[in-house]
Amino acid sequence: MPNRQPSSTHHRHSLRLAAGLLAGVTVLGFAPAAGAATPPSGTFTLSSAQGQDDGRPDSATLQQELNAILAQGGATSAIAEIRENGQVAWRGTAGVRELGSTAPAPIDGRFRVGSVTKTFLATVLLQLSAEGKVGLDDPIEQYLPGVVPGGGAITVRQVLNHTAGIFDYTEDPKFAEDTEAEQEQLAASGRWNTYTPQQLIAVATSHPPYFAPGQGFHYSNTDYLLIGELIGSVTGQSWRTEVQQRILRPLGLHHTYLPDTETRIPGPHAHGYLPLTSGPADITELNPSVAGSAGEIISTTDDLTEFNAALLGGRLLGPDQLAEMTTTVTTNQGFDYGLGLMRGTLPCGYVWGHTGQIYGYLTYVVGDRTGDRQIALSVTPYDPTKSAGVVRAINALLGQTFCAAPANPAPSSALTTGPADLEPSLTGQ
């Protein structure tokens, strides 16, 4: 499928919340390649040898593909991990920890995952559904009375899969950073602002809906602020506590962090940057409350591959709930969307996961449907003029990971334009 040019609205949104990073390309999904019919089988074997001609990816080739992301000139670092059948099969790093330094990007570094957060929230919600505490087809009004206008006609399922029509608060002019002066203000002071979910939801509900419930698809970060509030309403605990108790502790994800309003990234990490005319501005430290339950989580490639493997492998959800999560709606944006989970298409078939983008950081975590093979990737992009090349290189790495195919994807295999991520910003944004 050929790339579509972004609308001016999408371009403004990308500038507003991601300061132009990856403007003009999606960070959410994969366009189908010609002839793609069946998903990857889930039976893969990595080789450490070079020059193998058996169709399997080798470590040297994977590192070359990771290096190629930086060779585009639009990012300072990239780190990745592949997990196969429960074991780490390959890890790679490219680039530097921060501009002006020769220290390599830490292979075990933490990073902001953006909208990958949504998959964690959806997993908790589906666990609550299995426990009979939430009905997916119940109206959101039942759990959050008076919060969403017309909430009696909007189901929990529609909020989870972005078919509710609820306005995305990040598209409000309050969050516009369209001009150089506004971006400089963001870098200087705006990034320290604290927001409550109630404030952000109020911004969203001051706008009319995009469409009647169930009559379209529009990726909305507001949806997952509502899911966070719903989890709190049902359990009497914050969504952060539920994620900790239900996902992080059982899986031993000790390097995943729920920062709330904490501005630092704890532990080793690569720096993220905001593109300004005067040069990249370090945006590593910021108040993530602008993202909240739609995109605040900090994690590592190791924790994300373990999480996605556990999720798709049935260790976090029962068969019925996983079937609900992987039932998708068509977005007409190069990917399909389930309940907090995206389905993308590579030349050899489907992959499942999410992408995320928040100031300075771009994240992919995708895997085969069986949970046998996963990849997590963090990139720190800073030059929007190089974004198309960066995304093509990422696609090539994904192709090597799942298809062991030549790393020269045709235009039909490239990511297409789609909704921007939280940007403050897979659109997961």
UniProtKB/TrEMBL annotation:
Residues 66-385 form the Beta-lactamase-related domain. This is D-alanyl-D-alanine carboxypeptidase. It is an enzyme of class 3 (hydrolase). Residues 1-36 form the signal peptide. GO terms for molecular function: serine-type D-Ala-D-Ala carboxypeptidase activity. Its EC number is 3.4.16.4. The keyword Transmembrane does not apply. Keywords: Carboxypeptidase, Hydrolase, Protease, Signal. Pfam families: Beta-lactamase. Gene3D superfamilies: DD-peptidase/beta-lactamase superfamily. InterPro entries: AmpC-like (IPR050491), Beta-lactam-related (IPR001466), Beta-lactam/transpept-like (IPR012338).
